[in-house]
Design a protein that fits this description.
The chain contains eight helices and nine strands. It is of the alpha/beta class and about 280 residues long.
């Protein structure tokens, strides 16, 4: 029997948009809880996932991407990420292996230690140069898609966590409410089906959630900024909205392991990107 103490702590996943934070979180947990998209700044809320091992419990917090954007909402997202970072026991700076070191990395590499640099997407190209290596307690190379380097990363994280008992039960996976996970699942399908037709600013609000024996009934609003975008989402004769609803329903059924009745509506809401209170209501702050 090992004499090593049990370790537990909060691990903040940090980086610029599309650094691979959500993909890595899903790979670490072995289950998909965070949506993944090729579009930048997909993650908005603080998605928390818990990995329990015999020797440690790691509480991961997926954060919004940190970048140079000066729009009010983008600044709020950056502030949210830094707030999580400052309260964590361990920080991971995720950096696309083929990316260029720039202002976001400079900002994040100055965070308190312990701080690990995790070079992601190592299966997609030659690594670029990294600066300020003396600011890190270790440098890891991973591919969340292939699983390369995941075990080494987990070992390095456990080593950096403080000794302590588990914070959550062994079977605990995430603190995100099912309503929020459902909204995120619908938003992921929107990004996939509409691509650049619909801007990043689309949001999803679950207005009604009713659990009954053998089924869940969901009514959700798709929020766009302008009236002209409603027609794009709905499509001719409602064909695009129907396709969106069908795919979203199937994925929700797979996740919830029960029958789902999904009713989608498209509404214009100009407030949520401009008002932090509205963004908070949607679970993004």
């Amino acid at each position: 029997m090992s004499d090593a103490p049990h370790r537990c702590g909060v691990v903040a996943l940090l980086g610029r948009p599309n650094a691979g934070k959500s993909t890595l979180l899903n790979a670490l947990l072995g289950e998909k809880i965070a949506i993944v998209s090729r579009r930048a700044q997909t993650t908005r809320g603080r998605m928390r996932g818990v990995l329990t091992r015999a020797d440690a419990q790691l509480v991961f917090v997926d954060t919004p991407g940190v970048h140079r954007g000066q729009a009010r909402f983008n600044l709020a997202m950056t502030d949210a990420a830094l707030e999580v970072a400052n309260g964590a026991d361990l920080r991971l700076l995720l950096f696309d292996a083929s990316g260029e070191w720039d202002e976001p990395e400079e900002k994040l590499s100055s965070l308190p230690r312990p701080l690990l640099l995790v070079r992601t997407k190592i299966d997609q190209g030659e690594p670029s140069e990294v600066f300020a290596l003396d600011r890190f307690d270790g440098v890891l190379h991973v591919s969340a898609q292939s699983g390369q380097g995941i075990d080494e990363l987990l070992a390095a994280m456990v080593e950096q966590l403080p000794p302590g008992p588990a914070l959550y039960p062994d079977d605990y996976l995430t603190d995100a409410p099912l309503r929020f996970l459902a909204a995120e699942q619908i938003r992921e399908v929107i990004f996939e089906q509409y691509e650049d037709e619909i801007p990043y600013s689309v949001a999803v609000e679950v207005e009604e959630w009713h659990e009954a024996p053998h089924e869940v009934r969901v009514r959700a609003n798709i929020l766009v900024e302008r009236e002209s975008q409603k027609g794009i989402v709905i499509g001719a004769g409602g064909n695009k909205l129907k396709r969106l609803g069908t795919e979203s329903r199937l994925r929700l059924q797979d996740r919830l392991e029960t029958r789902v009745h999904l009713n989608l509506w498209v509404k214009t809401d100009r407030r949520w990107l401009k008002q932090q209170r509205r963004a908070r209501e949607l679970g993004y702050l």
